[in-house]
Amino acid sequence: MQVHEFSGEALEDVARERFLPMITRTGPDFRGRVAAQELGEAITLSQSHWGASMSMVRTDRMAAMASTDNLFFGVQTAGQTSHCQHDRFAELVPGSGVLTETRSPFERVSSIESRRMTLRFSRELLPLRTAEITEACARSVDPAAPAMQVLSGYLGRLFEIAEDLTASQQLDAGRAAIDLLAMVLRAITPSVPGGDGPVGVLLDMMLVYVREHLSDPELRVEELARRHYVSVRRTYTLFERIGTTPGAYMREQRLLAARVLLSDPRHARFGMSDIAAAVGFLDLSTFERAFRRQYGTTPAGWRREHLHHSGSLP
């Protein structure tokens, strides 16, 4: 077990190390404690104690720059916390839970001392479709729900005995927790059409997924098809409905996102490599070549022209 005890000044560093990069603010005399149990390379169970008021904000840029695609399920064990993501607002009381995805911005606020148990794991381990996962985020799970009581009891007991388990038992126990979580989330998630539903709905789901994961350099047609439980061939057929291919649509959306970043004075200090990485291009020359082919100018030229026109050229 790894234990961190810290003051408010160190909260941002601890959040980055144990959870993910966030902007944090705390009240006076804040003290915190995080104890974590590793349950395999991609699963961690932790208990957190926030000793006073605090807020955590995951910005759009932080979400776009995410290098991993993790999910967090938090169980409130004491105090109250407010949670907002995808324009949904969840008020957490002891015994309730909430799912959070790291590739979308969110905000968490607590005005009093609070305690929380958090299961962190890779998105691919949760046996739900992408749209179902997104729809489940920021929806408070009722502590009186039988499935939630089973899950919270299991997580509490697992945290207590995890150190006595072998490495393989820890991994099995972590995966069992994720299976229990899937049962909990299915009960709160609105109905989402499946891969056999209307082709227009499935295509819309794919388009949304692409736009929400532009920063992932591994986003390719094979991954898109796998995430939506269809073949690569059917994926190409679906994109023919909008007169393009999956690869061309991904490239177009990445370049559109880059154009927005280059035109925004708030990003004027970021280099071209940072902009390229933020929209999923690992190679700067590939990014610059694609941008020039699409817009007839270089990324640097676009930035100079549009920031100059807005009066914000650094």
TrEMBL record:
InterPro entries: AraC-bd_2, AraC_XylS_family_regulators, Homeodomain-like_sf, HTH_AraC, HTH_AraC-typ_CS, Tscrpt_reg_AraC-type_HTH
SMART domains: HTH_ARAC
Keyword Transcription set for record: yes
Protein name: Helix-turn-helix domain-containing protein
The HTH araC/xylS-type domain, residue ranges: 204-305
Domain of life: Bacteria
Lineage: Bacteria, Bacillati, Actinomycetota, Actinomycetes, Pseudonocardiales
Keywords: DNA-binding, Transcription, Transcription regulation
